[in-house]
Amino acid sequence: MRNQLFFVLVFLFFACEGETEKTTVKPVSKALVVVNSLAKTLSLVNLETNEIQNNAAGVGNAPNQVVLKDSLVLVVNSLSNDLSVFYFNKNDSLVSLGTFDLGISQNRNPWFLEVTNDSTAFVTNWLKNSVTKISLKNFTVTKEIFVGSFPQGILKVQNKLLVTNTNYPKRGSVSVIDLQTETVEKTVSVGYNPQDLASDGSGKIHVVCTGNYDTVFGKIFILDENFVLSDSLEIGGNPADIKISSEGIAYLSAGGFAEKGAKFGSVFSYDTKTLEILHGTENPIITDFGASRLVFDKQERLYVSCFDADAVNVLENDSVLIKFSLGDGTQGIAVKN
Prior knowledge:
Layout: H1 4-17, E1 31-36, E2 41-46, E3 52-58, E4 63-69, E5 72-77, E6 82-88, E7 94-101, E8 110-117, E9 120-125, E10 130-135, E11 141-146, E12 151-157, E13 160-165, E14 171-178, E15 183-192, E16 194-199, E17 205-209, E18 219-223, E19 229-234, E20 242-244, E21 249-253, E22 265-271, E23 277-279, E24 285-287, E25 291-296, E26 302-306, E27 311-316, E28 319-325, E29 330-336
Antiparallel strand pairs: 1-2, 1-29, 2-3, 4-5, 5-6, 6-7, 8-9, 9-10, 10-11, 12-13, 13-14, 14-15, 16-17, 17-18, 18-19, 20-21, 21-22, 22-23, 22-24, 25-26, 26-27, 27-28
């Protein structure tokens, strides 16, 4: 475990010195936290002043996702197989806690992380067909649970953990893990390339199946409260991430990548109550190139990371309100409210 001693020392330093840590990053009380996958950096956008601190801190190789848990900032680095951990102190300054291994072997390709309680998180391992349990007290791996092929999306629903198994290029599935026994209790077959999933607030889970990028296109599979397949929606394109508003509107990042000849990025949307498509392949919400990841703030403004454009677009009323130019390969995003 790299930097474990460093973490202990820093933790003790926090306890003794409180707000005296040195940092070159300006304090931010409300911020957009962004990882730039190709630049291997983390950027901050002050959402009160729109000031950008670009490439403010270094992270690992191919950072894929950033997750905020209280004052902790957790960055999943897919190629270096580790977790870059930061901390917002009482002054709202960002301080590094170090980098921690995410497994006993390399080439695991950790993808997404889900925090399940104050002391525990789980990470999907795309190349190892498994999920690892992580202690948030010392950032060590404490258990490995094997699921389906090429797991990616992960979501806690009550006392269950749902994992999408992309199984590309074949049909995929969702593994349902009981968090009490930490074992897979059932596997639900869905469509091709399930990449992400979200709860609609009514007990139903919406699983985004991207398709095979050739002959099979985007489709949403809906599981009921017992995790039984209950409905589906043909939405087309190649959607990936999903976020659902408090009013039940689902938004999907749908790419639009420059190398495919597109002239813009796309976000789709549909009503989860009626399954009416509001914005699809014929009338997408237009963004910058490469719409990849989505996140809401407390006001339910939608932030869209655009990988090819190295930018984040802010949507309001289904149109781009503002654009932030950030680091190379803008990818995972989170909001510090």
